[in-house]
Amino acid sequence: MRSSHLRRLVCGAALGLILSATRTSAVQLSPLAPTPNWSALESYQRTITRQEFARLINQVYSPDGAFWNYADIDDKRVVVYSDTGKAHPLFTLHFAASDSTCAPLPYAYKTQAATPHDPVRPLKGIRIALDPGHIGGDWAVLEARYFKLGNDPSVEEAKLNLITCQRLAERLQADGATIIWAKHNYEPVTSLRPADLHREAIAALALPEHASHSGYTPSFLFGIPLPHAPWHSSQAAIEARIDNEAALLFYRVAEIRARGDLVNKQHPDLTVCVHYNADDWGDPNHPTLTGHSRLVIFTNGAYEKSELAYDDYKYDMLRKLLDRTAVQEERGCALVGQAMLDTLKYPPEVYPGTYFAHHVTDVPSVYARDLLANRIYHGPVIYCEGPYMNARDAYYRIIAGDYLGMRTIQGQSVPSIYRDYAAAVETGVLKYFGVK
C-alpha cells in the first residue's frame, strides 16, 4: 500500500513538472528517439544537385511543402533548421554543381543480381532482411494483434507474419540470397519493457499539441484510442493511461528501433517487412468478421507536417533521401504489390485523398506513408500489409494453418495462404533484382 501510494505521488509530481515544462519549451525529439548524429550526413556532401534534392522533397518526402518551413535553399546549399523561425540550424548540405560532378554515395545498395540468369541460384550475393511484424507470444494480447472466435484457433498476427517469413526465407535462400532476420521468434528484440518506460510515457502524453479540445490527452502514437481519462480524473485512471502509453512505446517504438539497429549493422540490399492487415474486430474474445480483404504496400514518403516538427524525423528523412533509394523502393513496392494482387486475388486498399497515405506508382495497392520501420531501416524497404486477418475471405484460410498442396476451404480448393503470400513476395523480389 505504501509503495503504491508513493508511486501515485511520483507519477503525479512528474506529470506536473513535465506539463509545465512542455508549455514553455519546444519538443524536438519524438518519444524514445536518439539524438540525431548530424555529422553522419557529412559523407553525403556534394552527392546530389539542388534540382534533384528539391524534386525528391516535393514529389516524394514532403509533397505538401511542410519541409520548407524548416529549410532555406539556394543553388549551393540547403540549411535545415530545428524550428520554423529558422533560428536553430541543424545541418548544412552542399550541392554538387551538376550531375556529372556528384560525389559517389558512401554506400550502394545492389539492385541487380550478379547472376540473374543462373537457373538455380539467381540471387547469389544478394542480402535481404526479413522483418516479421510484431512480437507475439506472451506479448500478443498486449499488442492488440490477437483475437479468438468461439472454438476456432486463436489468430495472432505475429505468428502469421513469422510463418510467412519462414516460407519466404526458404524460397529466397533457395534462390541464393543471404537472409538477415530482424526477429525470428516470439521474444522482443529490445531489452526495454513497459515498466521501464513510464517516464517516457508521461512525457509523450504531456505533449501539448496532442491534447484534444475535450480535455482528453490521446496517445502520442498513431492516434491509438486509449481509455478516456482527463488529467483531472482519478489517479487510477491516469496511471492506467500511463501504463497503456508505456506499452505502446514498448512494442511500437522501442522494439522497432532495436530491430532497426540490428538490421542496419548488416547492410542488407533490401528489407521486406511482412504484416497481415485487419479491420476493427471489437472485443478480441467476441470478434467481428468483416466482409473482404484488401492489400496495400507502403513505400517511405509523404511525411506529415506534425512529424517534421521533430528533429529525428527530419534527420531520418534526409538520410533516406540522400541514400537515393526512393526510385528503387517505389519500384520494389510496385513489383511486389502487383505480384500480391495477381497471386492472392484480393483487391487493393483504397484510402481517401485526405488520408496520411498518398498513392504512388501505377500499381493501385502502393502508397507512400511514413512508418517507423520504413523510415529507420537503411536502404530500400518494401512494407507489405497482407490480407485482413478478420475478413471472411481470408480468416478460414488463416486458421487452417500452413500446409502443402491444396485444401478445400469454404468450398474452394486453395493453397496455404502463408505460402501464397510468400510466393507472391518472392516473385516481386526476383523481378526487382532483374531475374526473369
Q: How would you characterize the overall build of this protein?
A:
- The structure is a single chain.
- This protein is an alpha/beta fold.
- Helix content is 36%, strand content 14%.
- It is built from eleven helices and 14 strands.
- A hairpin with a 2-residue loop joins strand 13 and strand 14.
- Helix 4 crosses helix 11 (417-432) and helix 8 packs antiparallel against helix 11 (417-432).
- The longest helix is centred in the middle third of the chain and has 30 residues, at 235-264.
How many helices?
11
Low-confidence stretches: 17-25, 210-219, 221-229
What is the average of the pLDDT values? 89
Order of helices and strands: HHEEEEHEEHEHHEEHHEEHEHEEH
What would the keywords be for this entry?
436 residues; 3-stranded antiparallel β-sheet; 7-stranded mixed β-sheet; 14 strands; alpha/beta; 11 helices
Explain the layout of strands and helices:
Elements: H1 2-24, H2 50-61, E1 71-73, E2 77-81, E3 89-94, E4 127-132, H3 140-143, E5 146-147, E6 155-156, H4 157-174, E7 178-181, H5 198-205, H6 235-264, E8 270-277, E9 296-299, H7 311-323, H8 326-344, E10 358-359, E11 366-368, H9 372-376, E12 381-388, H10 392-399, E13 406-409, E14 412-415, H11 417-432
Parallel strand pairs: 4-7, 4-8, 8-12, 9-11
Antiparallel strand pairs: 1-2, 2-3, 5-6, 9-12, 10-11, 13-14
